[in-house]
Amino acid sequence: MPPKKPAPGKTGQKTARKAPEKKRIRRTPEDAQANILDAAEAILARGGGPAALRLADVARQAGVSHPTILHHFGSREGLVRAINKRAFERLTETAMSETARSSDEGLKATFAAYREGLAQRMVWLMQSKEPPAPGRLDLFEDVVERFHQIRKQFAQPGVVPDIRDSRAVIHLTSLAAFGDALIGPRLRYAGAREAEEREAFERWYGALLDMYLSAKAAKK
Q1: 71-125 residue pLDDT tens
Q2: Phi-psi map region of 17: left, alpha, beta (phi>0 left; psi -120 to 50 alpha)
Q3: The dihedral of CA 91, 131, 180, 183: what is its sign?
Q4: Spatial distance between the Cα atoms of 155 and 214, rounded to a whole number of angstroms
Q5: Which among 126, 113, 112 is positioned nearest to 50, based on CA atoms?
Q6: Which residues 6+ apart lie within 8 Å of 99 measured at CB?
Q7: Which long-range contacts (CB under 8 A, 24 or more apart) does 92-95 make?
Q8: Residue 55, φ and ψ in degrees, nearest 5
Q9: Over the stretch 117-169, which tens digit does the pLDDT of each residue have?
Q10: What is the pTM of this model?
Q11: Are 217 and 155 in contact (CB under 8 A)?
């Protein structure tokens, strides 16, 4: 019996298959927030500052909806505050670990963080009509306490560092890094030598702090 011929028009044809649907990624609230913050930071890294940060762009970058961002952060200001909080927490970890090995490296990390966007975002938030977020003083006091513990490790036997000095050093360093990020280049007016002059200022400031803290750590 001869083989059965295929029906006309069906030779070589394959049944079209539907493209598999993308599986929806289920994230914990913490992971969802981290994903949105990563997306926002990536956009900020391209330039333009917080004023140019659009939630629609962040949502597209993160692969989420606009309402999802509002659910987690409340507003654009809330998102920028969360970015700053994360930056400050990272700075604390980096600066304190570096300071334990070398005060110069800890200072460099602090000045760099403010210069690379933290100072600009803080100014933008200060101009916002929304009230400051709670918890900022807790972050500052955590840095003070950790720095104070490092001072106690390096103090001479019988010398107890004063936490008021530790608080003043962190306060002054925050102001110095914040101010230098905003107007340092204009004050130096160094042109092509800006990086060199900036590093020289950071070394000078570090030497000033070391001189003060060494005098305080000396046994009386």
Answers
A1: 999 999 999 999 998 988 888 888 888 776 677 888 999 999 999 999 999 898 8
A2: beta
A3: positive
A4: 9
A5: 126
A6: 105, 106, 107, 147, 150
A7: 92/139, 92/142, 92/143, 92/146, 95/143
A8: -65, -30
A9: 999 998 988 888 777 666 667 888 889 999 999 888 888 888 899 999 999 99
A10: 0.77
A11: yes
- Where exactly are the structural domains of the chain? 27-74, 84-217
Other Cβ atoms less than 10 A from the Cβ of 12: the count is 5
Of 208, 160, 202, 173, residue with least CA distance to 96: 173
Q: Which CATH code is given to the segment(s) 27-74? A: 1.10.10
- Write out the two tokens for 130: 């929304």
Neighbours of 111 (CB within 10 A): 25
Match 């890294």 to its residue by tokens: 45
Distances 152 to 35, 106, 155 between C-alpha atoms, Å: 38, 17, 5
